[in-house]
Amino acid sequence: MTDTDELNQTTEDTEFEEIDQSVDPRHLRRIQVMQAVFAFSFYDTDAQKDAFLQAYSDLKDLITELPTIDQEIQGLANERPLSDINKVDLAILRSIVFEWKTKRTPKKVLIDEAVELAKEFGTESSPKFVNGVLAHLFK
Hints:
This protein is mainly alpha-helical and 139 residues long. Helix content is 76%, strand content 0%. Helix 2 (25-40) packs across helix 5 (87-102), helix 4 packs across helix 5 (87-102) and helix 5 packs antiparallel against helix 6.
C-alpha cells in the first residue's frame, strides 16, 4: 500500500467516524432493540429464548409484552396474519409499540423513527406498511 492509499483510507475512515458520531444515540438504541427483537423472532426453543433473555436482560419487559403487542398489531393489520408480515417490519412495530406504551416519546417521533427504520432495514413497501399500522394505532 502506498502512502497515498493509506492517506485515502484514513480520510475515508475519518469521514465514516464523523457520520457515525452525528447519528442520534436514541436512533442507534432503537436500531439495537429492533435488531434484538428481530433475532428473538427466530428462536423456537425455551433454551434459546432463555439464553437470549440472559444476554439481553434489559429487553425482558419487551419480550414479556410481545403477546399483547402482537394482538394490537394483528388487530390493525388484519388483512394478513402476523406470520405473513415481514419479520423486519414486525420487529420495528413491536419495538416502537413497546416504546409507546412504556415511555413518553411523542407519537409523531415514534412514527417518523419507525418509517426511518423501515427505510433502512425493510423492503420497498415497509415504510408505507409501518406508517399505516402505527397511524391507525396512535389515533
